[in-house]
User: Fold these one by one.
Assistant:
Number 1:
Amino acid sequence: MVVLDSATSIIETTIHPSAVIWINGRQAVVATIGGEGQLSTCEINRGLEPEPSYLAEVVDAIGERERVLILGPSSVRLTLEREYVTAFRRRDRLVDVEPAGRLEVQTLVERLRVLAA
């Protein structure tokens, strides 16, 4: 992303491909941003899937990102952390894994914008 300041010089703004995820045992909301600033969100419902299949689907939705924040109220949050690290072998990309009650998509997007900056 290129921004022009008041002196009309060009300032490069780096966006780090990032993801913020809220997850519980039944549903996950994944918000991602790419290096060009494209933002997307998706909801994944577990339905009758076994937990490993559900978590694999969430990890796939996250993709390989430079920064990842995982939020949620239960142990599935920690299990997702382990699955992500196993899939991409990059523990250093997990910024935080913290407990949180249900969050609105807009709140996830706001946290994602801060994380990606």
Number 2:
Amino acid sequence: MDREPKVRDLMRRDVPLLSPGDTISTVASALAESGLPGLPVVEAGQLVGIITESDIIAREADVRVPSFIPFLDAIFVADGGRDFDDEIKHVLAVTASDLMTSPVFSIRESATLAQVATLMLDQGVNPVPVVDDDLNITGIVSRGDLVRVIARLEKGAQLPVDQQAAT
């Protein structure tokens, strides 16, 4: 009988943790060295934020000042691009605390593959910190981790039943 994989079976356990006071240089180096798409920010043992590759990359992007259009007695912002306040936050960030996204979506070790996949898609998050029942960080799971597990599951699904038990 097939059982759906649990997050504890597919997460990465060796995760570098960032502190709110870490410099952007420290954060960027930790991200680059880890090979993960994001790292958790922890203060006093509690998950307080997450910083992703996108946060680091956004620091280097051009800031687009919104266009203001007067109309009668009102002023409208005519801009369909990125959030200006968010762009400024990224450019001016000096520490992990300035750059991190908070609050953070996390998931329990006991969650299923389907639950973490749904969270990632519905909330547009990657990676997702994994916590135990006491909300301590025990790992992290990324889209890449899910793809590797799904590939193995799909490969197993294509094998004849007698060969599936052997893998």
